[in-house]
Write a structure and sequence with these properties.
The structure holds 2 protein chains of 2 kinds. Chain A has 16 helices and 26 strands. By secondary structure, chain A is of the alpha/beta class. Chain B is mostly helical. The radius of gyration of chain B is 11 Å and the shape is globular. The chains are: A alpha/beta, B mainly alpha. The interface between A and B is medium-sized, with 25 and 24 residues.
Chain lengths: 502, 75
């Protein structure tokens, strides 16, 4: 197997009429999915797009997923952008990517015009049913290699410019095969997708759906505000498998939803690399004693998830759920500062080896060279590992335990954020002289301390247009003078302490 | 009510909470805000908002939200 579309091509022969992707009101079968992907691929190829990024800029919808596979049929790689991303971020992505082609819907087409983006843009509804040229698609497939990119997704970058992580077919296939073994996905799996389509997190649902002929429901975002309605939706659609960020799970348990309604079909629950507050975790286990719970850990740069731990014992207050061990065909090197392996109990940086390590950051060789590096334990031949910047250790059971970050990267609401990016974007404002962003990891709150000639409310309103919601600080604090360290650097520690003490 | 408005102002300084009655319907508040509001109400007023009360009607305006808090304080 060398191309992700082979999953779809096998399944469409077996269960053509089964629903593949749906939301609350709309669904597409595997045969529709396949036909439209081939039509879309043909349309792109006939316009001369090949082996290049194609932006898919649409609202979260089964059609958006369909467009991804169309891009793959054209021998191109898709770059998902969500309608709800702030304009400033979309502009930065277009600037770093310089795509020639964009697939959009009616709403995003307007945005593209307003932004003055110089790319050819096509309405998905115009190309999804265009005639298929199977000879042309066949020639594209014959020339395909499994090291060709499948997608680019953008993650937070400390300089203020998002980085485009580019992954090839072979990495995604490796990930989907090993993830499916661990999670036990099958044709009976009914996924309830929570994560946005513009991150790697949704790979967990999209490709196993193709591989097994399963079904994925894209859960309307608004339901994540109203826990009772959310659980009712899970029950109505008979959803049995969810891979959600911890904050989405705790939203349900923390508000006592289970006293009103419980998920009736849910048996397989995976959660992301954030810390799961044990009280909330136990509330889930109590509500669903028969369900399997799996903690997953991994960076976008290694395709998705790299490690897993199946919960097999009780956890009490103060305990940490391990990230466990790597997937098959992935190795974790735990390296100390001097690049030697950490011993049991010693902290080290998580470095990842394997097919799942992605191709690097698109159009950014410098940033790529910083963390996609030669394996320091191997001097005999070229071998790239990815340095995550995450610190971990092995416990007495030989399980990996996540400790902390080496730098100023944080996780909030399941999203990975570089504090430097928030500062860089704030500094774009002319009135800002200096800015420092701190994160209270207990209360999950972001604060921006700044010096400058602008009131907090005005700065807040300005940043709202430039930053994604999850990156927006809750508190803006104006200072006459920034605290400095003896070396004259911004004293982040003092500011963080000040913020956390209120 | 003032404390509640403070919580809301911190989330969206640019919204006029006295007049707006469609905080949910117009997508001004998102899931992030709802969680923050409920957590803060819990801390500030020492009342827990039960899941059955986390419905759009109670969050569409500052007035409705305050009515909810008062109801919970009475219980």
């Amino acid at each position: 197997m060398t191309n992700l579309l082979e999953y779809l091509e096998k399944t469409v022969r077996e269960v053509p009429e089964k629903t593949a992707f749906a939301n609350d009101t709309y669904g597409i079968s595997f045969s529709q999915l396949s036909a439209r992907a081939r039509s879309t691929g043909t349309a792109l190829a006939k316009r001369g797009f090949y082996r290049e990024p194609v932006v898919v800029y649409m609202q979260k919808h089964p059609d958006m997923v369909n467009a991804f596979f169309g891009v793959l049929y054209a021998g191109c790689f898709y770059v998902p952008i969500d309608e709800e991303m702030p304009v400033h971020r979309i502009e930065l992505i277009f600037r770093s990517l310089k795509p020639r082609a964009v697939i959009c819907d009616e709403v995003s087409a307007k945005h593209i015009e307003e932004l003055g983006i110089k790319a050819e843009y096509m309405l998905y509804s115009d190309i999804m049913d265009s005639p298929e040229d199977s000879a042309l698609l066949g020639r594209i497939r014959a020339a395909h290699l499994d090291i060709d990119p499948a997608y680019i997704v953008f993650t937070s970058g400390s300089t203020g410019i998002p980085k485009g992580v580019c992954a090839c077919h072979r990495s995604v296939i490796d990930y989907i095969e090993t993830l499916s073994e661990v999670m036990g996905f099958s044709s009976d799996t009914v996924f309830g997708n929570q994560t946005p389509l513009y991150f790697d997190a949704c790979l967990k649902e999209l490709y196993p759906t193709l591989k097994f002929g399963a079904t994925t429901y894209l859960i309307p975002r608004s339901l994540f505000m109203f826990p009772v309605k959310l659980v009712e939706f899970l029950n109505e659609k008979k959803i049995n498998t969810i891979c959600w960020v911890v904050s989405a799970l705790t939203m349900v348990s923390a508000f006592g939803t289970f006293a009103t309604v419980k998920p009736q079909y849910l048996t397989n629950i995976a959660f992301g690399s954030e810390v799961f507050p044990i009280r909330q975790f136990n509330a889930w286990r109590e509500a669903l004693p028969k369900a399997r719970f799996t903690n997953l850990y991994g960076p976008t740069e290694a395709t998705g998830m790299s490690c897993w731990y199946r919960v097999d014992r009780e956890f009490g207050p103060g305990d940490v759920i391990p990230i466990g061990k790597p997937f098959r065909n992935t190795q974790i090197l735990l390296l100390k500062e001097d690049n030697t392996p950490a011993k049991q109990g010693e902290p080290g940086e998580i470095c990842i080896r394997g097919t799942s390590v992605t191709l690097g950051y698109y159009n950014d060789p410098e940033k790529t060279a910083e963390c996609f590096v030669q394996n320091p334990l191997n001097t005999a031949y070229p071998e790239i590992i990815y340095r995550t910047g995450d610190l971990a250790k092995y416990n007495e059971l030989g399980e990996l335990i996540f400790l902390s970050r080496k730098d100023y990267q944080i996780k909030r609401m399941g999203h990975r954020i570089e504090l430097g990016e928030i500062e860089a974007v704030a500094s774009l404002s002319e009135q800002i002289k200096s800015a420092c962003c701190v994160f209270d990891d207990v209360k999950n709150k972001l604060a921006l301390y700044y010096m400058g000639d602008i009131e907090p409310a005005a700065l807040g309103a300005e940043l709202k247009a430039k930053l994604p919601r999850y990156m927006l600080p809750q508190a803006f604090i104006k200072l006459d003078q920034m605290p400095l360290t003896p070396n004259g650097k911004l004293d982040r520690k003092t500011l963080k302490q000040r913020f956390m003490e209120g | 009510m003032e404390k509640l408005l403070e919580i809301l102002q911190e989330l969206h300084p640019d919204v006029d909470y006295d007049s707006c009655e469609s905080l949910i319907n117009d997508k001004i508040l998102d899931s992030f805000d709802i969680i923050t509001i409920i957590t803060q109400i819990n801390t500030e007023f020492d009342v827990a908002v039960p899941a059955s009360e986390i419905i759009p009607e109670n969050f569409n305006s500052a007035k409705a939200l305050w009515a909810l808090v008062e109801r919970l304080l009475d219980d």
